[in-house]
């Protein structure tokens, strides 16, 4: 924005810091019955020099802090660090209160103010209506012929006085909350700083607030930030947009910025102005579509929204898309947030950057935090969840979506606050504490991330500035046909930037170790859940969503470049080629890889469960459903998921899917887990399935922990399954053959894949140094004695290291307690073999003795 030559904004040179003498030492007067202006309370609450003493620069200068510097007469914005706990819903800085009214004895003399030239009626109307694109050109202080014009918009105020150069000059009341006046100040290159004394009381000295004028400040957002936003390449977007507490030109406050390119005007409304944004219109920063306003005195804890004037002139009150903290649903306001958290996971983060996840153990426990143990806060979860997961030996937890969402029944998959952890369990720093504690226990943290769609709530992203902004302008492409939500417009640079930066944000600001990207298939195909005639082919005549492909490639490339050791995983249910291939490697379909680190193996999940739900006598007819996964096992880097989706909506819990009586159900459950842990690929198990919960999961009450209560007669049955999961993870972590060559075909070899009549599957896994492991699953309910299996002849003997039929797990105790000698008896194409006993409905693992 270039100021008019005859209407220059007041310079920020030499702003006067608040002094204790600026107000009486005694108690503040009663809170006014009309809106309190930001600035006065904060200035009064901080002693002289407080802004300097409490401010510190954030390590690693971001574009918003390094570019577009304020001219030499001004100080650059720096982050404010509070020394006291923040209160929810605090209107201004912590413990702030309005200053006491000034007495007539200590007031400077009142000077006569000449009337300023009236505003153009159209400009006045735009200002009052909230449709002015450059309020700083009208409000504030501007040099003109004969002196300096001061103009302010203070609804409900009875009088406004300018305090400048030791003078008090009461402005003329122009009506509608506008006050103005012309002061015959000397013509100097830099105008002197000033403050406003706003009176809401009927008499002088009653309900007066001394405050900074937001319209005397130059923009607090740099040109480089605006350039990167326009290019869609601002990888730290959260540092440029949203509400950011800072010290700007020596004054503490919050910079508000929002992208709303089609708005006629935007204002800031919050608890600091009684939700009436009339006094605080924002300025448009050129053609960037970004609106900005620095509000002195507004700090962490303040509630706010953006009052947006749509192109048709109507108004909408919207939560901040970049809000880093929100109210607890169903309340919907955004909250000014500044983290005070001190991380203690340096050792974990250093190791993470050196890891190669594909060649390391990865055993994931999927958790829905609000219902894992209902009612617990993030900090209470931090005292229980890490210990539980570590005891069971899982290497990682995967959190179902943690970003803010209005409806708990969506489990977090309909997000409205993409940059804010849900407030249901605490503050963002509380969530950081939970991640930190998991890291300190050696447990990685993955989270579900939902960039495919968003809900239509009228206070959130849908038609944000009155137009299709985040969603596609074509309603046929904007509407998600399955979920009643809107799909992101992946072809718009600013929208892609919003999402790519969001992925980086969680990994950098919350130390998240991986993102599982939800509903990738719905993003990749233009005809996803659409009938012929309901979709339009791409420029090549195909069904692929080329914009979504490009977005996913950009997201993965950016995350892997910026966050070493972080993984991404796709929930992708089709045969799309190259989900985990590098983005620069073009496949046979002409596309580069999507660049994910892993892909959920939905085919394995579906086929193997279809096999397991059959009665053993019928399994022979479905044998290939268990072996087919090895046809494509190395086409991608796979995770084997038994997730929340498989134990809800009438699908039954894992143990309840199994045929037979209670003993057989548990035996099938245990055998299946043994098969899963030994199959190539990493594994994921949803909470409650580790102890064979019989009921489906419900977000209302979570896992049935009472099943493990010793007072419950069948508690031992459930404890036995949990003991097995603990041992599966323990042996898995200590056996490189089970994970070191997960993505290498040379790490696997069938021994017996065709024994359909026996319901037996046997295979070898190999470590990088060639050390083998034999995994055998017998999915029939009969014991098979001396079952001949061909094995490598160089191993003289084998010992059983895991048996899902062990008595301590609730099994029958059938197994191979003694080492098995390798015989020179050919079998399965090998010159040597062993003849173990195969327990019924069980999996056994054998390693060299």
UniProtKB/TrEMBL annotation:
Catalytic activity reported:
Transfers a segment of a (1->4)-alpha-D-glucan chain to a primary hydroxy group in a similar glucan chain
Q: Which Gene3D superfamilies would you find in this protein's record? A: Glycosidases, Golgi alpha-mannosidase II, Immunoglobulins
Is Zinc tagged as a keyword?
Answer: no
Source species, domain of life: Bacteria
Keyword terms = Carbohydrate metabolism, Glycogen biosynthesis, Glycogen metabolism, Glycosyltransferase, Transferase
| Pathway note | Glycan biosynthesis; glycogen biosynthesis
Q: Which residues form the active site?
A: 518 (nucleophile), 571 (proton donor)
- What ranges does the record list as Low complexity composition bias? 27-51
Against InterPro entries, the record matches this protein to: A-amylase/branching_C, Branching_enzy, GH, GH13_cat_dom, GlgB, GlgB_N, GlgB_N_E_set_prok, Glyco_hydro_13_N
Give the signal peptide, or none. none
Glycosyl hydrolase family 13 catalytic domain: which residues? 366-726
- Region: Disordered; residue ranges are 1-114
Against CDD domains, the record matches this protein to:
AmyAc_Glg_BE, E_set_GBE_prok_N
Which PANTHER family does its entry note?
Answer: 1,4-ALPHA-GLUCAN-BRANCHING ENZYME
The UniProt entry, under NCBIfam families, shows:
branching_enzym, PRK05402.1, PRK12313.1
Q: Belongs to which family?
A: Belongs to the glycosyl hydrolase 13 family. GlgB subfamily.
* Database matches in HAMAP family: GlgB
Function in brief: Catalyzes the formation of the alpha-1,6-glucosidic linkages in glycogen by scission of a 1,4-alpha-linked oligosaccharide from growing alpha-1,4-glucan chains and the subsequent attachment of the oligosaccharide to the alpha-1,6 position.
Name of the protein: 1,4-alpha-glucan branching enzyme GlgB
Species, as recorded: Streptomyces macrosporus
Mind giving the lineage of the organism this protein is from?
Bacteria, Bacillati, Actinomycetota, Actinomycetes, Kitasatosporales
List the gene name.
glgB
